[in-house]
Structure formats: structure tokens, C-alpha cells
Amino acid sequence: MIRNVLSIAGSDPSGGAGIQADIKAISANGAYAMAAITALTAQNTQGVSGVHLVPPSFVSEQIAAIFADIRVDAIKIGMIANAGIAQAVAEALRLHPEVPVVLDPVMIAKGGAPLLADDAIATVRDCLLPLATIVTPNLPEAAHLLGQATAVTRNDMAEQARALQALGPKAVLIKGGHLDGADSPDFLVTGAGEHWFEAPRTATKNTHGTGCTLSAALAARVAQGLPLHEAVLAAKAYVAGAIAHAGKLSVGTGHGPTHHFANLYD
């Protein structure tokens, strides 16, 4: 059976991040992709120039329409934008506690533009984190959620991952791409234990949307029933391949996208 995955996130017209990246990544990982849009952005590989928010009530209506007709096997949450949308999404998801949720707490675009209002951080922390099967912050996002300084060591990463898990999610995958050094380690903490995922850092500027892509691929694998550790391995392998082949694309002059369908192209 092909599993169905719903992405709740913002739109990126350049196709590298947000809903567009999620649809590609979910599809490339063997699941059927659906989308409830929280915001329209004006952006390209050089940055975000504008954001137009969808009213919270209409975000709720999109989600309700999907559940009224279609089986949902997993949910990925990306850009939430403000407290009202965060609250609307939380209320919608509380009606479906059986569906696993991958929460990617999108806060800052690759070019530095804020994608989450300051007053929404507490709502995400208090209302969405407890509903998550797994949350996938990078180091600045984890620090913002905890009100702490950004981790600069592996020990900092592990401590912040444990602190985030204590806020309610079943598991936390904290991504170490912002650490200095030749490696880019990620740390997973679940109810069953802890694990480091080691990976060499790929020298490329084509990393637009990597967080969206990873969390969407992870949602597809969770929907397919893989245990979290195996789902993370599969999602990370997919993203590594998408980054490694990103140079085959010719998209923009800034932070280019990853190659979501590298395995399907000659």
C-alpha cells in the first residue's frame, strides 16, 4: 500500500524548500504527498522578499478537508509563521492522535529572513512539541525553542536534545550542520536510547531547503512503518544523495536547491 503524507508548511515559489520540496521528497521516498499551505512566500535562491500568511481558520479548513476524505498515514509540519496558525494546527492535530507527526520548527530562512514570529515560539513549544512523534531542529532552532545559547559542542547538542524531549515529543533529532568542523553530526534521542549519526560535510552552497527535505523524507519513512532509527537513516541517505547531485541542477545564483529526484535522472 502506498502511504499518504500530509505536509503543513509554507510555499516556496523557487521550488527548493517548503511545500514544493516536501512534495518532491515525499514522492521520491515512495509515498503520496498532500499539502495544507500556511503561508505564501516571495523568495528565490538569494532570499525571502515577502511573506503572505494564510488565515488560521483557512489552514484549519484545509486540514479538515483532507481528513474528511483521505487516510493520513503521517504528517510533516514545517513553516508555521505565527501563534494563531500554530494554535490552529495544534487544535486540528489533537483530533487525530493516532497519526505520527514530524515537526520541523522552521524559524529562519537560509538567507536569514525570519519565518516564525517571536510570539509564536512559545506556542510551538507548548502546543506543537507535545504532539510530535519526532522534532527535527537545527542548532539555532533548538536554542530558540529552549531560550538558550546555540550549541557549539556535541555535548551541548545532546543536552539540548534531551531538554527538548522533556517538553513532550517522543523523539528529537537535532541536526549539527551549524557546528564547526569537517563533519556534520546529528543526534537522535528516543524513549529507547540515544544515537549519533556521523556524516562528512559536503562542500556546496546548494543546500536550500535541506531541513524541509529531510523532515519530509522522514515523514514518508515513518508513514511506511519504519522504526525511528531506520527512518532517520533512510531520510539522511536520501538527503545526502540529493545534496551530492545538486550540482547537476542550474537553479538560481544563490543557495541552490538539492536534487530531489537525482535517483530518477540519468
| Proportion of strand residues | 15-25%
| Average residue-wise pLDDT | 92
In the CATH hierarchy, the architecture is 3-Layer(aba) Sandwich
CATH structural fold name = UDP-N-acetylmuramoyl-L-alanine:D-glutamate ligase
CATH superfamily: Ribokinase
State the separation between the terminal residues, measured CA to CA: 28 Å
Give the count of structural domains: 1
Question: What is the tally of helical segments?
Answer: 8
Order of strands in the sheet with most strands: 3-2-1-4-5-6-7-8-9
Secondary-structure blueprint of this entry?
Layout: E1 4-11, H1 18-28, E2 32-44, E3 47-53, H2 56-69, E4 74-77, H3 83-93, E5 101-103, H4 121-128, E6 134-135, H5 139-146, H6 154-165, E7 171-175, E8 186-190, E9 193-197, H7 210-223, H8 228-244
Parallel strand pairs: 1-2, 1-4, 4-5, 5-6, 6-7
Antiparallel strand pairs: 2-3, 7-8, 8-9
Helix pairs in contact: 1-7, 2-3, 3-4, 5-6, 7-8
How would you explain this protein's 3D organization?
The chain has 266 residues and is an alpha/beta fold. It has one domain (4-136, 205-264): Ribokinase (UDP-N-acetylmuramoyl-L-alanine:D-glutamate ligase). It is built from 8 helices and 9 strands. It has helices at 18-28, 56-69, 83-93, 121-128, 139-146, 154-165, 210-223, 228-244; strands spanning 4-11, 32-44, 47-53, 74-77, 101-103, 134-135, 171-175, 186-190, 193-197. Strands 3-2-1-4-5-6-7-8-9 form a 9-stranded mixed beta sheet, with helices on both faces. It is globular.
